[in-house]
Design brief:
Elements lengths: L2 H17 L24 E6 L8 E15 L2 E15 L12 H4 L3 H4 L8 E3 L8 E3 L2 H17 L9 E2 L5 H13 L5 E2 L6 H11 L6 E2 L6 E5 L10 H13 L7 E6 L4 H4 L3 E4 L5 H14 L9 H4 L13 H8 L3 H13 L3 E5 L9 H15 L8 E2 L10
Parallel strand pairs: 6-7, 9-10, 9-12, 10-11
Antiparallel strand pairs: 1-2, 2-3, 4-5, 8-13
Amino acid sequence: MDRRTFIKLTAISGSATAAGCGGVPGQELIRFVPEEDLTPGLAEWKPSVCPLCHSGCGLTVKVMQADVDLTKDGQHGVVTRSVAKKLEGHPDHPVSRGGLCARGQAAIQVTYHPDRIVKPLKRTGARGKGGFEPIAWDAAIAEFASKLDALASGGHQQALSIITSGRRGHRRVLFEQFAEKFGAAAPVAHEIFSDDLLRRANELSFGVAQLPTFDLGNAGYVIGFGAHFLGTWNAPVAHAAAYGHMRRGRPGVRGAFVQVEARMTQTGANADEWVPVAPGTEGVLALGLAHVILREKLRPAANGRASALIDGWAAGLPEYAPAQVAAITGIRAERVERLAKEFAARGPAVAIVGGVPLAHTNGLFTALAVNALNELSGVVGQKGGVSFTPQLASAAS
């Protein structure tokens, strides 16, 4: 009896046993019967980088030899190639340190998912109707080249628009070089979930137009303003590892975490205290905390660049007294007082803002308010606080 027949027989007998035990119907046991026998071989682990978010976590890719169906020049055949089988985090990567989130684990589906786009698609019918049909690569390239030739011959190179993702890389550089040589405008980077507003706020507050780096592992108190940093925002793998160290990696020290948000996220579910706030009022609460700290002289008054952007800061933020903040945010005045005193007492204390609060029309105000709170806390550029990673002169943040 060969192996395949044995597996099929055991699948059938297992199902019969489950259904007939004591006359009580049970769940059917289902065995996976592979369509093709696995080809034995040695695996190689090769380094790479995850492309699914800005974190750029390090990968090790399990590569093995496999038989691949291939059609070339109208002829079908099978060739042996090295193919990726599994993705894991790279233990030596400075950001992820061997970790990999669920999206990263599933990134291999970019290559293998049956619904992925595998060839050029050309629109059929009216624009916006969603009609597309696959065409050959040679046909697509020829049509694209003819369109470019028509623009160049007519002197309309500036009519070409190139839209890229927000991530930088060799592909982005190639598009930039092509646009320059062709005479078109520089490529436009587009992100559906963009952090450009936060970069702008950091440029205004600290002179650095980039996303912040948080030293959560050494923080004593963290208050999040809508930033889903344990889920999908910024660098969740690195944040999760640092958060774990903050909570239980220091003998005798356990950092506290408060999450302020309008809707509970996975990050909020992990907090010591979850504070439901009226949508779009997170910045008001941040300045309410600053008001109490300044009024009670719990921290030395900050007079830096970030606080100078906030109206009324020098006067102690009189418009953000706990009673006024409570009326706007829905958070009781007593709670505002307590949170402010905890934030000032349990340092290093850092505030994190990102995601949904910055999608409101007052998003810039919210980001600037949280930046000023961090300046008041004295953690900008300090251990357990917030900093900005030095950038290469030719690289974007």
